[in-house]
């Protein structure tokens, strides 16, 4: 499998070549779905056929699978040609799978993304032990038996008063085309464009859904509600232990530098776009230079960031360009790529014989001035440095620990038993609370000046 161009990177990628175990392109690091796939790959075709046949075995309906017409790569099964047209007229045009159209490529991309072959068949996984293979089979069988379904497209009977769409809450009238999902109960129906995954909000590819606790999901996101997924190899984690960082999970051996693949368990690392890097690679790839002194800003040094500019978070470097007043923890005025303590300094006036400087600051709410900036340090600290980001418009200062140590999590659930699953939801709720609380605390530390 080589050569398919990347839709995201264009010329930058010479063509898709699979990484040894990450399931991304070694050239551009994008996932395979981003690379043009003109036909459903054989591996996926086989997996899909198996999924559909497994589904039919468990299915209560006697529906046949969607056979393609000449015009479309796929059509909903069991409906008349004019209803096929009515169904597709509800779907955004760029998502209608006309043969050789962007809609067909969208369908293939979604098949690859929503129904990962490695979620159901051990042979598509990289290095599962015998025990893990057994668990994957059980996991996959259980989901097919208890959650998997295929939406059925039907004309809503004209004789009936209509129903409410499960997604948008709006009316579906007699004579409208609607999607029914037997797992969700017999009255449940959706507008064709509303039959989406409750997690990624994408149309459920080929109407294949997984039903859980009142919601429908794509295969990928349903699996992730039950088990953690490794951020590096994209496989479901069946091992008892995994590495957890920032609410995401990795196989222990897969928590390694995205660049040099040094294993980072117990080591310091820096996360960038949800990918961990060793300090060495991070510095050589993403080094920032201080706008004041021109020196490199080390990962252990505090950093101020504002609209793409960077400074050492030190009194000398982050100071007024006119009078050198240190600006850490103070409101500042950015102008023409420089920062100033006041309007008068920004206009190049002598700060000593002007009171406009004071009046400019006094007109600001006092409460904002009393809030302290986070601590900054230019000396290395054992837990790593702080990065202070000042975002545009409202100049909010926030601290984020860039380098940190990993934690090892014993994942608190098995594939069976609702009690353990409950723990997982409580755990998720806690994670949500923790991240949002953290964000909230950061926000109230904001200082702004207009
Ligand atoms: Zn790419
Ligand atoms: Zn590529
Ligand atoms: Zn709807
Ligand atoms: Zn989804
Ligand atoms: Zn992994
Ligand atoms: Zn590295
Ligand atoms: Zn500097
Ligand atoms: Zn000044």
UniProtKB/TrEMBL annotation:
<feature type="domain" description="LIM zinc-binding">
    <location>
        <begin position="228"/>
        <end position="288"/>
    </location>
</feature>
<dbReference type="InterPro" id="IPR033726">
    <property type="entry name" value="LIM2_prickle"/>
</dbReference>
<keyword id="KW-1133">Transmembrane helix</keyword>
<keyword id="KW-0472">Membrane</keyword>
<dbReference type="GO" id="GO:0008270">
    <property type="term" value="F:zinc ion binding"/>
</dbReference>
<dbReference type="InterPro" id="IPR010442">
    <property type="entry name" value="PET_domain"/>
</dbReference>
<protein>
    <submittedName>
        <fullName>Prickle homolog 3</fullName>
    </submittedName>
</protein>
<keyword id="KW-0677">Repeat</keyword>
<feature type="region of interest" description="Disordered">
    <location>
        <begin position="368"/>
        <end position="389"/>
    </location>
</feature>
<keyword id="KW-0812">Transmembrane</keyword>
<dbReference type="InterPro" id="IPR001781">
    <property type="entry name" value="Znf_LIM"/>
</dbReference>
<feature type="domain" description="LIM zinc-binding">
    <location>
        <begin position="163"/>
        <end position="227"/>
    </location>
</feature>
<comment type="similarity">
    <text>Belongs to the prickle / espinas / testin family.</text>
</comment>
<dbReference type="InterPro" id="IPR033725">
    <property type="entry name" value="LIM1_prickle"/>
</dbReference>
<dbReference type="InterPro" id="IPR047120">
    <property type="entry name" value="Pk/Esn/Tes"/>
</dbReference>
<dbReference type="InterPro" id="IPR033727">
    <property type="entry name" value="LIM3_prickle"/>
</dbReference>
<dbReference type="Pfam" id="PF06297">
    <property type="entry name" value="PET"/>
</dbReference>
<dbReference type="Pfam" id="PF00412">
    <property type="entry name" value="LIM"/>
</dbReference>
<feature type="domain" description="PET">
    <location>
        <begin position="53"/>
        <end position="161"/>
    </location>
</feature>
<keyword id="KW-0440">LIM domain</keyword>
<keyword id="KW-0479">Metal-binding</keyword>
<feature type="transmembrane region" description="Helical">
    <location>
        <begin position="424"/>
        <end position="442"/>
    </location>
</feature>
<dbReference type="InterPro" id="IPR033723">
    <property type="entry name" value="PET_prickle"/>
</dbReference>
<keyword id="KW-0862">Zinc</keyword>
